[in-house]
Fold this sequence. Notes:
mainly alpha; two-stranded antiparallel ribbon; 64% helix; rod-shaped
Amino acid sequence: MILILGLIILIAAVIIGVVGIFGNMGADHALGTGGDFSIFGYHVMGSTGSVFLAGVVVGGAALLGLALVMLGVRRSARARRGAGMSRREAAAVDRERDDLIKQRDIARAETGGPVADAPGSRRHWFGHRTAPR
């Protein structure tokens, strides 16, 4: 969600900046000689300072959008990396469990005790399960 919001803000700021640059070229739009600066029908009349301030606002919006995009990318990368580590940790735990089961079976075989048929199998009191799980 953060990524999408950041992309929307960034794209809007870029569009406004490009329209402001290419829509106000030529001698008619010179601010010092009574011309005006317009973006999507909004006219900025006055000094170059007011146009500069509008540019700072658009640049700030673009920076905010870029920051949100980077935050969203970082979050999703961290989530993917965390999921990969969880799978690796689960595989390591499974291997350790299988090793312990093998060691237990070897120890029981050496002492003459019963050996499990499969990892995780248990003897049931009545010999079988009544219903599959």
